[in-house]
Amino acid sequence: MKVEQSPQVLNLQEGMSSSLLCNYSLSMTSIQWFQQNPGGQLISLFYIASGVQQNGRMKSTVNSKERYSQLFIRDSQPGDSASYFCAVEAQCSPDTCSLHMNDS
């Protein structure tokens, strides 16, 4: 499976809003979005199979037909300064599942 995330680098001013896009090449079971803070800690933001989830100023959507997910960040704050990653769990048979991270 190929997983691509864009943009690779995103610079926002405080208070601005933006989104990240995660495209994947095969049918999936779920998408996970992670935030890695400057200290290296990896935080799970969303685990989503379909539709929309919201957590405060952040929202994630999945369009399984078009094979993409988006992470929206509204009213950005200094604490949002981090690296963000998507991971895709492919549809599979028992004992053959694996998680595919984006290539960046």
Automatic annotation (TrEMBL):
InterPro entries (alphabetical): Ig-like_dom (IPR007110), Ig-like_dom_sf (IPR036179), Ig-like_fold (IPR013783), Ig_sub (IPR003599), Ig_V-set (IPR013106), TCR_alpha_variable (IPR051896)
Alphabetized UniProt keyword annotations: Adaptive immunity, Cell membrane, Disulfide bond, Glycoprotein, Immunity, Membrane, Signal, T cell receptor
First-listed, main subcellular location of the protein, grouped into a coarse class: membrane
Any single GO CC term annotated in Swiss-Prot or TrEMBL for this entry: T cell receptor complex
Protein's UniProt keywords contain Lipid metabolism: no
PROSITE patterns: IG_LIKE
Ig-like domain location: 1-104
Gene3D superfamilies on file: Immunoglobulins
UniProt superkingdom: Eukaryota
A GO BP entry: adaptive immune response
Residue stretches in coiled coil: none
Signal peptide: none
UniProt-annotated location(s): Cell membrane
Subunit structure: Alpha-beta TR is a heterodimer composed of an alpha and beta chain; disulfide-linked. The alpha-beta TR is associated with the transmembrane signaling CD3 coreceptor proteins to form the TR-CD3 (TcR or TCR). The assembly of alpha-beta TR heterodimers with CD3 occurs in the endoplasmic reticulum where a single alpha-beta TR heterodimer associates with one CD3D-CD3E heterodimer, one CD3G-CD3E heterodimer and one CD247 homodimer forming a stable octameric structure. CD3D-CD3E and CD3G-CD3E heterodimers preferentially associate with TR alpha and TR beta chains, respectively.
Official protein name in the record: Ig-like domain-containing protein
Source species: Marmota monax
